[in-house]
Write a structure and sequence with these properties.
alpha+beta; six-stranded antiparallel beta sheet; 6 strands
């Protein structure tokens, strides 16, 4: 099962910024795979070309950078897909609210 990560407010470094860019662009879905033994791996499938039948490869993202983004609330995990050997979570960028949008939502709820 997935262990909780403490929330931090540390700034994102260059490696974290690149990982966040890859997740935000979403040309390919990024997933977190947690294996039965506890090993965690973030990654995505990189096709060789856009044509069918050309194959591709699995690209791993730096786990420490992804865990830091998750702990900082910059990325979120979706609903898990569970099988006996592993659990896979889709990874998405977190929705960041602006203070004015949060205030407008609060006003709409109290009106």
């Amino acid at each position: 099962m997935l262990r909780g990560l403490p929330r931090t407010t540390a700034p994102v470094g260059p490696g974290g910024a690149e990982v966040l860019r890859l997740i935000t662009v979403q040309r390919v879905p990024v997933c977190l795979t947690v294996h039965f033994n506890g090993r965690r791996r973030y990654g995505y499938w990189q096709p060789v070309s856009s044509g069918p039948g050309y194959g591709g490869c699995y690209v791993a993202l730096p786990t420490d950078e992804c865990d830091a983004l998750h702990a900082a609330g910059r990325i979120v995990l979706g609903e898990p897909v569970v099988d006996p050997a592993k659990t896979t979570y889709p990874v998405r960028p977190a929705v960041r609210r602006t203070p004015s949008a949060a205030g407008a939502l609060r006003q709409a709820l109290t009106a």
